[in-house]
Write a structure and sequence with these properties.
Radius of gyration: 24 Å
Order of helices and strands: HHH
Number of strands: 0
Strand content: under 5%
Length: 74
């Protein structure tokens, strides 16, 4: 009986911790993906502003190409 209780006292916290870490990882991943979809790190206005600061007048095609290349790199 004592050996059984000792075994549970050691393994139960470890198993609980591992399950919590796995569940927490997937919940955080889901939350982060939804956050980035709602609040993208860069948008078309930012691309236009960056290109203008570099002394270029961006066409709509160039802006779309930059946005498409950023989506592919995800």
């Amino acid at each position: 009986m004592l050996i059984m209780a000792l075994w549970l006292d050691i393994t139960l916290p470890i198993v609980t911790l591992l399950i919590g870490l796995v569940v927490g990882f997937f919940l955080a991943k889901k939350y982060f993906k939804s956050y980035l979809e709602k609040n993208p790190p860069i948008n078309e206005q930012m691309v236009r502003a960056m290109m203008s600061q570099m002394g270029r007048t961006p066409s709509e095609k160039q802006v779309r190409q930059v946005m498409a290349s950023m989506k592919q790199s995800k």
